[in-house]
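Open question from group meeting: does this chain pack into something compact, or does most of it stay loose? Before anyone orders reagents, we agreed to write out a predicted structure and look at it together. Recording both the input and the output here so the notebook holds the full record.
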Amino acid sequence: MTLRKRRLPAARRAVTVLTTAGAALASTLFTAPGAHAADSDITFSNVVINKGKPIVLGTGTQIEVPLTYTVKTKAKLDDWWVSVYRGTLDGSETVLANGWIQWNCRQSAAGGYTYYDCDESLQVDPDQLAGSKKLVNSDATIWKTSGTAIKIGGSYDTDLLSYTTRLKRASVIAGADASPEPVTKSKPITVKGTLKRANWNTHRYDLYGAQKVTLQFKAAGTTTYTNVKTISTTSAGALQTTVTAVKDGTWRWYYAGNSVTGAYATSGDYVDVR
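Structure tokens returned:
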């Protein structure tokens, strides 16, 4: 096996244009005759996005999402890639990435086929998708994948793949605080916070009410948090509860998320018990 690393080639740069401002290019790429016909000489497999975990996005910040896959081909290829999209590949689809980072592909050969085991990253910006689109809240759902290979000479093949990934709206707990600090043993400690969630429609974080959030504690000298109690946020996303001071340690809130919202844990607030 040889390890191959290359920069973004010309054909791949064209697809980067597609994801930032290329509605017309999308129509050309995905509706050309035979674009969806599977080529028995080229297959994509072993697709894994974000190490199998949901992709969690906030507002206005680009992230890099790891992507691995294998290409098996008898044809000589000029370029290839995996796309993450919603809709149908007819020019109206929404493509998630706005670019690809240069990647490593480990090349090998067996049985008349060439194999490329690729490891790369997708650049994902919630405010910059294909055709000048932006994420909206309904995009917090399952996304599909396709694999495209461009052969030497310019012909290409796009296959619909079975792998899917879930996109979630990011959550955050603001103003997390445990007080008083220090506190007398056996006296009450009040822990507060406010749960918010990314709103892709308005590109801001909104208060997130009626959600169950767990208060956790890590005793001084230990490395593991334990669950203390679970409460629900108010309609305004507010969190507040009282516990008894027993020993020194760190308090934090943990929100487990749901099918459309990512999890979040606060950094923790240390309280000295005297």
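Observations to bring back to the group:
The chain is about 10% helix and 55% strand.
Residues 10-21 form the longest helix (12 residues).
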